[in-house]
Write a structure and sequence with these properties.
- The protein is of the alpha+beta class.
- The protein has a three-stranded antiparallel beta sheet.
- A hairpin with a 7-residue loop joins strand 6 and strand 7.
- The chain is elongated.
- About 4% of the residues have low confidence.
């Protein structure tokens, strides 16, 4: 049974699959963007992103490990010299898959997989969007309703000095209307505290 085995074999034997992924990863690192099928791109993403993360630590040991996966000296040099510096501040998610429709011959899903930091058009669009968009909050009440203090400015004509009065919301006493007379109102008086000496 294959419980929990989530690897896509891509219709290839294990050595064929490893060689194919190494070749596609090399092409991605050298050209920064390639066109392939969606299934291969998803497997490539799992294959190449740990290598890019490992390239942040530039040591002989990590270079040899990456070389054992890629088996291409130029790709390793490109990864450590340029790509590692560009993705240094990014905490993962180095690749992006863009679907482009189906292939003519066999109708398989095609896509473009690219390194995120090398797509200048999308980077420019996101920076413009970040500059234009103001931070909005999703609250139920507006800030104007929350303020309890309202300032009222009146100008005194004689002196020309501006006077500011602070008005706070005060509780108004409850008014009860009686059944016998509609226009007369009674104000409910606050309850008096019991005197301890009276008891």
């Amino acid at each position: 049974m294959r419980h929990g085995n989530t690897v896509n074999h891509l219709g290839r034997t294990s050595p064929h699959r490893k060689a194919m992924l190494a070749n596609i990863a090399t092409s991605l690192l050298l050209h920064k963007r390639i066109e392939t099928t969606v299934a291969k791109a998803k497997e490539l993403k799992k294959y190449v992103e740990p290598l890019i993360t490992r390239s942040k630590d530039d040591s002989t040991h990590s270079r040899r490990i990456v070389f054992s996966y890629l088996k291409n000296k130029e790709a390793v040099i490109e990864l450590y010299r340029e790509i590692a510096l560009k993705v240094a501040n990014r905490p993962g998610g180095y690749t992006r898959i863009l679907r482009i429709g189906n292939r003519m011959g066999d109708n398989s899903d095609m896509c473009i997989i690219e390194l995120v930091d090398y797509n200048e058009n999308m980077l420019a669009a996101t920076t413009k969007k970040a500059d234009v968009k103001e931070k909005s909050t999703r609250r139920r009440r507006s800030a104007a309703k929350k303020k309890e203090v309202v300032t009222d400015a009146t100008i005194i004509e004689n002196t020309g000095v501006e006077e500011v009065k602070k008005v706070t919301k005060a509780k108004t006493p409850r008014v009860k209307k009686t059944a016998d007379s509609t226009d007369t109102t009674k104000v409910k008086a606050p309850k008096k505290k019991k005197d301890e000496s009276a008891e």
